[in-house]
């Protein structure tokens, strides 16, 4: 029977096949990381854009500077507001500037939304 020569890495030894899989997994992890980072950069640029800053104010004005989730519970809350994307950027980039997809929420409601 053919026995694959083993390669020692640290205190483990691997066959060529195992090493190939190992390298493949590493490359995949690396690519995911790079893709993730460039995506993040895209989001940061978006959140820093004048377009977004203006739209944010429009949404806050439309929602009377009140957390829409607290309001639904009958609570008037105008503290720590942020503008939330109902459909997140990473799920649908085209809805990032859609007023219908945006709402004013407070930080604690926002945390609850994203906990789900
Ligand atoms: Zn709230
Ligand atoms: Zn959000």
Automatic annotation (TrEMBL):
Cellular component GO terms, alphabetical = cytosol
The protein's organism comes out as Staphylococcus edaphicus
Family per similarity comment: Belongs to the HNH nuclease family.
The uppermost taxa in this organism's lineage are:
Bacteria, Bacillati, Bacillota, Bacilli, Bacillales
Can the keyword Zinc be found in this entry's annotation? Answer: no
- InterPro entries in UniProt: HNH, HNH_nuc
HNH nuclease domain sequence ranges = 54-111
Q: Name one GO molecular function term.
A: hydrolase activity
What is the residue range of the signal peptide feature? none
Q: Which PANTHER family match?
A: HNH NUCLEASE YAJD-RELATED
Keywords carried by this UniProt record: Endonuclease, Hydrolase, Nuclease
Q: Which SMART domains match?
A: HNHc
Name the chain's protein: Putative HNH nuclease YajD
